[in-house]
Amino acid sequence: MFKNIVIVGTGYVGIPVAAMFADKGFNVVGINRTKEKVDLINKGLCPIEGDEPNLPELIDKVVKNKKLVATTDYSVCKTADAILICVETPFDSDKWEPKYDSLKSALKSVAENMSKNSLVIVESTIAPTTMETLVKPILENTSKMEAGKDFLLGNCPERVMPGKLLYNIENLSRVCGGINEETRERMLQLYSHIVKGELYPTDCITAEVVKTAENAYRDVEIAFANEVALICEKLGINVYEVRELVNKAPYRNMHLPGAGVGGHCLPKDSLLLSYGVKGILTPELMILARNLNKKMPSHTAGLLIDVMKEKGMDVKGKKIAVCGFAYLENSDDTRNTPSLGVINSLKEKGAIVEIHDPFVKSYEGLEIKKDFYSCVKDSDALVFVTAHSEYKNIDLNKIKGTMKTPIIIDGRNIFDKEEMIKRGFHYRGVGKG
């Protein structure tokens, strides 16, 4: 039934999905608007940096086997049996609405080229009712075809995570929301080729709510952990010891606190979920949690400012090395990275900020250094925002000898407080009083 598959968007969601379907023998075409990324994929190279187990090898294999190609041309949708849309859907906090520009553009281009009987699936995370109020109208109005009659339409929200892309796609359960029974049956048939986890058929709006709710739930969990961390700082105790002991109780699973929440999903999905009931209901808890998590990067910067004040120093004019720019350890994913909040908070106070990350090549004109020791040389303080494995193995004596002032702010519990103080560092950590 399925032979030709088109994947619109070849980022963290699209490229692993494309490679996995190609490995199962399907003819897969990935569409990306960036020619540079298209060329990279067609050379058999992985467009994602960082530690992504088995993905580079799989892409190389399926490209060499001519089962996966990439293009900028949407005309390939004309021969597609299934079209999966995997574009980003950020949220504009200022306007309090989703930014669906990429989604709208992709839908219009797909509708201009798709044929009858195609199965169109949105994997992108979207606000509840978006399938009915935006996706379906654009596809129908542009194609002059009717969903459910001339083509099938569904929503199968992704559940990927950098560092576990292939693993999550293969092993986690998926929710297959379709506009009718036929759509749901075909979605189950399609995804059963690459998903070993359970596949649950449902309607589109339930699928939309499931995805946004599961991430909103996690954001709330993290906010609770962060608030306990702030309490522990004031009480002079270690939140990580508190967490360990709390989790000894049955049915307790307190999350990890830290310097901030990043990634494409968590910072926006509670907002998308709330947007789905705009004008009907105003959610409170998840918005409070979101606002608390948003404050953690500036709080992390504040720890540095406070310790400098204690030492009679002003952060203005001081060289501060921010260690880690990706939002997630051992990844190059910079989407909604809390590091940016830390950097901006320090720059507002007049600090001279240098950035190190072993995986991130560039970000909107910011210089990001690859060599750790040259970055931290002559610095007045180091602020660790991402727990890259490299940081857990650094030579502490070496960096202490090369720094002007041995101040370390630990936003991810990379170091032991007592050990750092013993080594002569002025140490502060999120949640460590």
UniProtKB/TrEMBL annotation:
Cross-referenced InterPro entries, in alphabetical order?
6-PGluconate_DH-like_C_sf, NAD(P)-bd_dom_sf, UDP-Glc/GDP-Man, UDP-Glc/GDP-Man_DH_C, UDP-Glc/GDP-Man_DH_C_sf, UDP-Glc/GDP-Man_DH_dimer, UDP-Glc/GDP-Man_DH_N, UDP_ManNAc/GlcNAc_DH
GO terms (molecular function) for this protein are: NAD binding; oxidoreductase activity, acting on the CH-CH group of donors, NAD or NADP as acceptor; UDP-N-acetyl-D-mannosamine dehydrogenase activity
Reactions catalysed, semicolon-separated, are:
UDP-N-acetyl-alpha-D-mannosamine + 2 NAD(+) + H2O = UDP-N-acetyl-alpha-D-mannosaminouronate + 2 NADH + 3 H(+)
Name the Pfam families for this protein: UDPG_MGDP_dh, UDPG_MGDP_dh_C, UDPG_MGDP_dh_N
Top-level taxon of origin: Archaea
Q: Name one GO biological process term.
A: polysaccharide biosynthetic process
Query: Keyword Oxidoreductase, does the record have it?
Result: yes
EC number assigned by the record: 1.1.1.336
Q: Where do the UDP-glucose/GDP-mannose dehydrogenase C-terminal domain residues begin and end?
A: 321-417
Give the family, as the similarity comment puts it.
Belongs to the UDP-glucose/GDP-mannose dehydrogenase family.
This chain's protein is named UDP-N-acetyl-D-mannosamine dehydrogenase
Q: Record the organism.
A: Candidatus Methanofastidiosum methylothiophilum
